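Hi all, posting the design record for the shared folder.

TITLE: backbone redesign
STEP: 1 of 1
STRUCTURE INPUT:
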């Protein structure tokens, strides 16, 4: 089966053509970084308007570069949530219009599930190293930081999450404190490689606890206090050193909790996914620490970690292969229900209504 995927949850307009075995025939992303950079973050209304302008050209380019005719499509998959509602509506309505016009089934996909299954994408020229089920996944991005046990595409349990800021959000806020601009994560990563992490010690939040939860607001506050104490302009190296210390502490906590989850669940496979999984420090430390304790670490290519439509198409193809079809009644949602909610949990009712996989 060949599936068209559409992703518009935040500030990337993306379309992809993917087969149900994960082969990526095309993957097109139109970024809005330059649009939002002057504001230091994503402006929801501007993001939605940009999706309106970009979506049709992006879908046309995805079809053209895949070599697939629209008549060969077996279905459409769209990001259903979580995300910015205005942005999600643009992608969902476009997908429904296309499905109606072509008589195709359409399914909604959780943005989170898309990330969790992105490790199975097969991109041209890249080695296919994929994990067997089950695996532990660290999903870490600008909006989400959580650990999951993924037993199949339809059996996913959340093990723990951040209590406050997502790791990617903390990166962007620290970058703003240091005057590095937007998006901040890649700039902090680059400067961290040039800095001395020992010069400015910072806290490692919740590192000593056994719970599989995270907290980054205190670390962000500690950086803010350092910035107020120091004259960064007098010694630019201080900025690199603060970046190195901040990144080191975030990375060590993320990896330590992830490996704890592997030990607690007796699952020797760890997948990194989400935009922050593109961070070089995180990728390197996870692979090194994983080898030391006998856990095989899977790190998808960077284009599979950041927001993309190929992951949405692949996750949607799994639902379509089971004969599922949300039809024109498909609705978007801004917040995610808890993956793996218990049968008596109110979260499960939200889960059912949005047709996300559950334990």
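Okay, here is what came back for every position:
SEQUENCE:
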């Amino acid at each position: 089966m060949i599936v068209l995927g559409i992703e518009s949850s935040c500030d990337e307009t993306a379309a992809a053509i993917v087969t149900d075995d994960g082969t990526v025939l095309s993957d097109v992303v139109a970024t809005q970084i330059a649009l939002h950079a002057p504001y230091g973050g994503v402006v929801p209304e501007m993001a939605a308007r940009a999706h309106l302008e970009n979506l049709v050209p992006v879908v046309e380019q995805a079809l053209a570069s895949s070599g697939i005719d629209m008549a060969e499509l077996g279905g459409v998959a769209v990001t259903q949530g979580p995300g910015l509602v205005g942005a999600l509506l643009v992608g969902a309505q476009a997908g429904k219009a296309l499905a109606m016009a072509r008589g195709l089934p359409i399914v909604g996909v959780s943005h989170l599930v898309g990330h969790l299954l992105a490790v199975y994408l097969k991109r041209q020229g890249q080695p296919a190293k994929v994990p067997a089920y089950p695996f532990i996944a660290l999903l870490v991005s600008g909006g989400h930081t959580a650990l999951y046990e993924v037993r199949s595409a339809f059996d996913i349990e959340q093990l723990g999450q951040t209590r406050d800021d997502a790791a990617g959000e903390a990166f962007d806020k620290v970058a703003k404190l240091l005057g590095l601009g937007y998006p901040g994560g890649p700039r902090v990563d680059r400067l961290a490689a040039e800095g001395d992490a020992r010069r400015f010690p910072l806290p490692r939040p919740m590192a000593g606890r056994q719970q599989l939860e995270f907290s980054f607001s205190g670390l962000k506050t500690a950086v803010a206090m350092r910035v107020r104490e120091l004259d960064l302009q007098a010694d630019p190296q201080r900025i690199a050193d603060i970046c190195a210390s901040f990144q080191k502490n975030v990375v060590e906590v993320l990896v330590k909790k992830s490996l704890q989850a592997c030990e607690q669940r007796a699952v020797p496979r760890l997948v990194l996914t989400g935009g922050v999984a593109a961070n070089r420090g995180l990728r390197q430390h996870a692979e090194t620490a994983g080898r030391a304790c006998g856990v095989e670490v899977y790190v998808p290519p960077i284009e599979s970690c950041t927001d993309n439509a190929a992951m949405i198409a692949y996750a949607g193809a799994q639902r379509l292969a089971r004969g599922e079809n949300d039809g024109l009644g498909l609705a978007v949602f801004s917040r995610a229900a808890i993956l793996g909610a218990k049968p008596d949990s109110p979260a499960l009712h939200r889960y059912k209504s949005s047709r996300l996989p559950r334990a």
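COMMENT: The two ends are 26 Å apart (CA to CA).
Let me know if anyone wants the other runs.
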